Structure formats: C-alpha cells, structure tokens
Amino acid sequence: MSYNVRMFNYYHWSTDSHLDDKAFEFIKRESPDVLSLQEFYQSPDISFKYPHQYIKTKSKSNKFGQAIYSKFPIINSGSLDFKNSANNVIYADIVKDKDTIRIYNIHLESLKINPNKEHFGEQSSEKLIGRLSSAFQKQASQAQEFIDHEKGWKGKKIICGDFNNTAFSWVYKQIKAGKKDAFIEAGRGFGKTFNYTFPLRIDFILVDPEMDINSFETFDIRYSDHFPILAYVQLP
C-alpha cells in the first residue's frame, strides 16, 4: 500500500478532529504486508504494529517525512536526502522467503497548488507559471537522482509513492521505463488518487516486468487529499 497521509491532519486542514484515528484504523484494517507512507508525521498517538520499519524525518526535531513499514525483515535502508526540498526518496530492502526486494518510497517536489485558493486569472498567471516551472525543474532533477541511484541496485524492486505529476509527465515516463504500472495492469476507471475536480492519478505502484499484479485498488476515502492505493504483487 502507498498512501500520502497529509501528516495525519496535524495542521488541521480538516475540521474532523478524528481524521488521524480514521486513517490509522483504515490502514490497520487493510493490514498490507508493506506500507509506504508520504507526508508522514511521527506521532506517539500513531503506532503501527509492524515488526519492521524505516522512518526518515527531516531532522531529529522535525517529525515530518516518510516511512516504510514491513511484515518482512528489513536488512538495509537508506535515504537520498534531496537538497533544498521538503521532499525525498527513501528505500528499504526486505526479505521474503529467498527473495530480497528493494522498496522505494518516492515523494517528488510538490507543485504547491491549492485548487480551493488559487486564482487562475490573467493577473496571477505569470506568478503561477513561474512557480510551476521551478517545481517541474526540481521534479526532473529529483527523478534523475532517483534513476541514478536505482541503477546501482541489481535485485528485484517495487517503486511506489506520490510523484506529484501524472502518467503523462516526463518524470513518470522516465521512472516507469522498463517497469509495469500496477494500475494499468489491474486497475479500473480513471484511477484518481488526488482529491481534485479532475481525475488526477499522481500516486503510483511500479514493479519489475517479471512480477505479476493480481489486483489493484484505489480507495475512495477522504482522510487526506490523496487516496490510498493497494496492489497484490506476485513475485516470479
């Protein structure tokens, strides 16, 4: 499962004071073997009962970041530590039976557009275009940094996360090269993963071509501005 949890409502973007509990209970109920979270907030009130985990926050005092939880042993983990960005890529090498699979948790640069507050009129268009251009450049640089790192791993791998861009984008096409998209293999409908007027699919699970996707689901729950995605992956 991959899920951008929007910091479990830490900044109260929703007036529902129980939103963090609802998100936690949902994940607990689905109980995925491997859980990849973006915009994670490390809170003592949110405690997943997984035997293995890798959590990477921006600093010891800053409890925001990304997390990978696993029911299988994690024998190695790390972080790319993007410069001048709140976003990042982390990874964990998990062991299932005789296989070692690297799980990449990707969170590319945000476009920082709030559809409820943005004004798309002529007066603000130049400022908006400048901001988007800067974000796209950062995404491209981050995607290349990930691809360079990925080349150093010769084993099996699963890539998931919030790309902050669609399946029509350059960054998606570069990262997806040589892989299967779980939604394309077994998903239905538009695959909308971001709570916006248009059906934007910006969260992905990508696997090696030798792996099979037995099923894929996007959950229409409103505990974040993203919808969680879940794939059942069969190893070769």
UniProtKB/TrEMBL annotation:
Under Pfam families, the record lists: Exo_endo_phos
- Ranges for domain Endonuclease/exonuclease/phosphatase come to 1-226
Q: Which InterPro entries match?
A: Endo/exonu/phosph_ase_sf, Endo/exonuclease/phosphatase
Q: Per UniProt, what is one GO molecular function of this protein?
A: catalytic activity
Give the protein name, as stated in the record: Endonuclease/exonuclease/phosphatase domain-containing protein
